[in-house]
Amino acid sequence: MPSPEHGPAHRARLRYAWRVCSVTSLGLVLIGIAGSTLNVALPAVVRHFSADPFQSGWILLSFLLVNTACLVLFGRVADLVGRREVYLAGFALFTVASLLAGLSPDVWFLVAMRVVQAVGAAMILANGTVIITDAFPPERLSQGMGVYIGTLSVAQLAGPTLGGLIAETAGWQWIFWVNVPAGVVALAWGTVTLRRVPPGPKQPVDALGNALVFAALSALLLALSEAGSRGPSSPVAVAGAVVFAALVPAVVLVERRASHPVLDARLFGGRMLAFANLASFCNALARASLVLVVALYFQAARGVDAFTAGLSVLPVPVGMAVASPVAGALGRRVPAYALSVGGSLLSTAGLGVLLLSAGAGTPYWVVGVGLFVAGCGSGAFLTGNTTQVMQGLPAGGLGVVNGFRLMVMNVGVVLSVGLSLSVLAGSVGPELGAQVYAGTLSTLSPVAVEQLMDGFRRTYAVLCAVALTGAVLAALARSDR
Length: 481
Hints:
By secondary structure, the chain is mainly α. The chain has helices spanning about 10-50, 55-80, 85-100, 105-135, 140-170, 175, 180-195, 205-230, 235-255, 270-285, 290-300, 305-310, 315-330, 335-355, 365-390, 400-430, 430-440, 445-475.
């Protein structure tokens, strides 16, 4: 008599689970391509609009900020009205916003469309991991998660080259328009594949908590971007820092009193979840800006075009694409926390290579090795950490808890980009900062390039230290016992 693991019901569940994995993977492809293409093609957009450093930074930061602030909100909304409906609505919204972004008449309209894109992306990201966790049997979850994370790596693999090619040939508008057919396909396949799930118990949304978190992150990012473009003594930078400092205790007070807080620390009171999420924050802080920083290095310091820069950063997503499925397969024999620790250490090693070899004349193979090792570390960490956290979450309110998990990670992403851009722009002074974003600084003078290289060294040093901290935290997340 066949065991339940080999019976017809189990096989049917696995077939459905892999179809669900294809839908959620399309969501990551959509968002991964959108992010990685713009990271490389940003100088083309900046040159088209003649954007100053402040505007240039917010083309990226507006998306990251709004996406982060909305993750927990849409995890809660999905628990109320249905995960399938919110997930598919995210596809539709992201696709429409991508179409309109390519029609932007000025830089602030583009920023507004990036905000709308961010809302759609939050609806997708807040629910994709939960959908795939519900679909897979527990013993196969690491395999499904490895493929799921691996598709993001594939998107990031294609994105830099695609973004550079588009920027050099078709025009910056197509950086956004390439999302439209992918969004239409994802929406159609998701509508056909995903089963309807009854909504969860009706619980209030923490609107005030969401607003305060959004305001605090906005103030912090404003301070970082102004410090980079106009100096840390800029009145706007100082005001942003003061507002952020004032809002932090307000967030803590409101969240303690809220019946269903957006930052519910009680859900992460256990040792494993607390340290695993702190490790995820550190990994995102060390990882998120790497492709952007290196793409700017090749364009601003080495003077290459966007397409060549896109090819040059490929070792990062190649490493992620190699490591994610390998880590997923190992997950059946190796504890998830061990994959997280190993991934963090690889990321630290890769960033260390970039730090020690930073220079305008460094042979490319040295840079490529550092990028590949860092990419492998990110792929292994994301697979191990995501599996560990999702297996440790309570069944009730899974959507909002996962939304909080993603929010913690995305705060790291937001701060990574904001901090890296601030350090790089600040290293050459306000007057040359615009040339960094436009990718044209290498045409000015060797002195300016060397100033910029000092900025890269400082950036890599900070990211390397953060990655090492993440490894320590991942090791501490071994068990609640």
